[in-house]
Specification:
Helix content: over 70%
Distance between the termini: 45 Å
Largest sheet: none
Shape: elongated
Structural class: mainly alpha
Radius of gyration: 23 Å
Number of strands: 0
Number of domains: 1
Number of helices: 3
Amino acid sequence: MKFLPTRKHVARTAVSSNDSLGRGVEISVSVGVFLVVGLLLDNAFETRPIFTIALSLFSLLGSFVRLWYVYDIDMQSKEAERRNVATAHIRQRSATR
């Protein structure tokens, strides 16, 4: 007797940031790495906040641009999937004739 429903297998794609938690961690780690690199460069060249601020902003901008493109690609694929589902009955009817 089964009390729990069976889980359907979900195919994972090769995209590393397929979920929101992964995207958040990716953004925070990216900003953290660039922040540390900026601090190291500022200490090496004795220019206190310049590299830290510049590299942190660069990382934030790059992360949000990447987030935009990933979101846009996801939405385009979902639109195509919904379009195919919505017109499937028309294709089936024309295939049987």
